[in-house]
Amino acid sequence: PMNLLSLGEPSAQSLGVDVRRLRWQLIALSTVLTALATAVGGVVGFVGLLVPHLLRLAFGPDHRRLLPLSMLGGAALVLLCDLPTRFVPGGLRLGAMTALIGGPFLLWMLRRNPC
User: Fold this and answer.
1) Which domain does 14 fall in, by range?
2) Residues 56 and 112 both lie in one domain
């Protein structure tokens, strides 16, 4: 259904998707998952921005592949960002490390596709 929704509302509706219901279900699911992830892991910026966009560039827009790959890719990025924070004397927060990587990526994305 998410792939059909990416075709646009009229196309998805003509193919039998209840667009309004699906949209609300996705918003509710995203809200709950985001709240749970933030409650468990704290605020870690840019992971949700960086990983799906890079994976979409590499593997295409098919959500059946993109969603599981994004979950694995996000976990891998957090682990890679966490490793250097363990070895910095005095400690470095994980959110700061993800911002060091995510900030330049955001600038690159903005330069690549200006609004």
Assistant:
1) 1-42
2) yes
Both tokens of 19, joined, read 């667009």
| CB contact at 8 A, 2 and 26 | yes
Q: What is the pTM of this model?
A: 0.66
Task: Please identify every stretch of the chain with a pLDDT value under 70, giving residue numbers as ranges.
Answer: 114-115
3-state secondary structure 12-78: HHHCCCCHHHHHHHHHHHHHHHHHHHHHHHCCCCCHHHHHHHHHHHHHCCCHHHHHHHHHHHHHHHH
My answer on whether 108 and 59 are in the same domain is yes
Q: Give Cα 110 distance to the centre of its chain.
A: 16
Is the same domain home to 30 and 84? no
Contact assessment for residue 94 and residue 81, using Cβ atoms and an 8 Å cutoff:
yes
pLDDT digits 0-9 by tens, 24-48 = 999 999 999 888 877 777 777 788 8
